[in-house]
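## tool: complex_structure
## caller: assistant
## args:
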Amino acid sequence: MNARRQANAVDVVVVGGGHCGLAMSRALSQRGIGHVVLERGAVANAWRTERWGSLRLLTPNWMTQLPGMAYQGGDPGGYMTASEVAGFLSRYAARVSAPLRTATTVLRARPSGTGWRVETTQGDWQCQALVVATGGAARPMVPASAAAVPSQIAQFTALDYRRPSQLPDGGVLIVGASATGLQLAQEIQRSGRPVTLAVGEHVRMPRLYRGRDIQWWLLASGVLDQRLEEVDDVERVRRLPSPQLIGTPERAALDLNALQHHGIRVVGRLAQVRDGQALFSGSLRNVCVLADLKMNRLLDTIDNWALTAGVGDDDAMEARPAATQLPTSMTTVLDLKAHFRSVVWATGMRPDHTWLDASLRDRAGTLRHEGGVGGLPGLYVLGQPFLRRRKSSYIHGAGQDVAELALHLTAHLSRGARDRIATHGIAPRFASATLFH
Amino acid sequence: MNSQMNLVENGVNVEALLGARAALAQAPQAARFRWRATSRWMNGTQTRTTIDGFHGLGGEQRHRKAFTFDTDHPEIFASEDQGATPVEMVLVGLAGCLSAGVAAVAQHRNIQLHAVAASVEADMDIQGILGIADDVRNGFGAVRVHFEIDADATAEEIAALVAQSQKRSAVFDILANPTDVHVTAGKVAS
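## result:
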C-alpha cells in the first residue's frame, strides 16, 4: 500500500449520515470543530434502500426528535414510515448544515500517526477523531442451519425482504420473534401465504397500556433512561430482540395470540435443519412463560411508578394482556420441502464494522467500545443497542449519547493539541476519562 | 449484582457458582466438560452402568465415590425388573436438573425454599420402538413436569423460578433440542 497517498486533513470524520451522524455533526459545528460526514448513499440511506415497504417506527411521532428538531406534523400519535424517517432526516441535515460527502463509501479505517486514516471511494482523510455512526442494523445474522435448507426453497433476510409478493406462493417459514419477525409474519400471512413462525426468546409488550402508548410509559417512568451500570448483564441486554410492537394507525397489538388468531402456526426456536427437516425446540412454552412474566414485571413497574407519580386513574386500570396461548400439541419437526417455498430469516442484525481495522473489533466483528468510546484514543461509536442507556436504540435516544460523547471527543482533541504543542508531534497518551457521572 | 445480605439458606453456594461463572468466562477451555458412563450388560434387558470420573476445569475429576445404576424392563415386558427403565432414568435426570436449578435460582434471588416437589411424566407410544408404525417416533411424544413449591415468595416469583430453571437446564435442553449422537462398535478379540 502507498502510505504516502494524498489525504485531506480534518479534525473529525463522521462515518454515516443517519440520525446519529447528523446529530454529532450538529454538536461538532456548535463547538466550531472541523469535520465531514461521509455517507455511502444519500442521507438516511438504510431507511431509503434497506427496509421493507410497510415498516414504521416502533415509537410515536411526538417522540421522534433530535437535538434542535422535533416532530412538527399533525399526527403526533402516529408512527413514521421508513420514507417519512428519511424525509425527517433530510430536513435535519439541511437544518444543521451538515458538511456531507454523499456517495462516498468508506473502504477502510485504521490508526495512523496521532490520529486516523480513512480510505474512501472518493479519496482519503486524515483525522484526529473518528466517529462510527453507520447504524446498528446493517448486517443480517443468519444461523448456520441456513446452509442446510434445500436449494429449492428461496431464502430472504430482513435486509432484502421488501413485500410479500416478492416471495413465491406457498408456505413461508419465518425464523425469529422480534418486532421484525412478527410484523413480517402478519403481512405475509395476509397475502395468502401460510406462515409458520419459529419463536425463541422474545420481548412482549402491549402497544397501549392504560390508554397510552407503551413508549409513553417507558419514557415517563424512566425505564428508557436506564443506564449501562444499572443493568446486571450488559451483553445480554444488548442482544435482546426488539419488542413485539408495530406502529399502525389503529395502534393494534401484535403478539403471538393475535398471530395465531389469524392462522399463523407457532413453533419453537429453529434448533437445526437435518436431512431436509426443520427441527424446532421444545422450549416454546417456557420462552412464552418467560416473556409473559417479564412483560408483567414491566407493567408492574409502570403501575408502581404511576401510583407514586399520581399519573393515571386507578379505575381506568387496564386488564393485563392475556397469557400467551399455545396449542396443546406442538409441532417439533417439519419437512421443509413439503411445507415451505421460502424461509425468511428475522434472526437479528449486527452493525457492519468490517471496514475498521481488525484489532479494534471483537470476535463477532463488531467495534469494541465502552459506552461509545472505542479502544483507541479518538474513536467513537454511536447508535448501537444500549450504547449508554436503554433509549440508545431509538432515534430520540441519540441526543444525550451524542452530547456526552461530543464532550469526550472535544476533550480528546484539546488534549491532543496541547500534547502536540508540548512535545512536538509525539502521540498523546490516552487518559481514560470516566465515562459515567 | 444483588449484594444485599443473604438471610436465605437453600444449601446452594451461589457465591461459588457466580465465582465459577466469572472465572470460566475468562477461561473458556476450563468450561469444557466431558461426562462419562461405562456400562456392562448383565442379562436379558438388564444393564449396569457406572458413573465415576469426568473431565472438567482443565483436568480429570472424580466423584466422591462411584455410583452404579441398574436399568431393566418391567415384568409386563417379560423382563425381570431389576431396575428402572432407561427412559425413566431420563426423567430422573430431568427432575434432578430442574430441581437443582430451582434451588440455585431461589438462592440467588434470596427466596427461602421449604419444599420443592416435582412430578414428571412422559408420553410414549411404543408402536415406535416395536416397529409397528413408521410415523411414530421411538422417544417421548411429550414431557410434562409439575412443580409444587413451598417458599417465601409470591406465586409469580415461584413461576419465574421454574421458568429460569428451565432456561438454564442442561437436561431440559437435551430433551428439547436435537443432539448429534455418535455410536461406534468394536469386536472384542477372542
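## assistant note: Chain A touches chain B at residues 232, 268, 271-272, 274, 279, 281-283, 286, 289-290, 293, 296, 329-330 (CB under 8 Å). The CA atoms of residues 2 and 62 of chain A lie 50 Å apart. Handing back to user.
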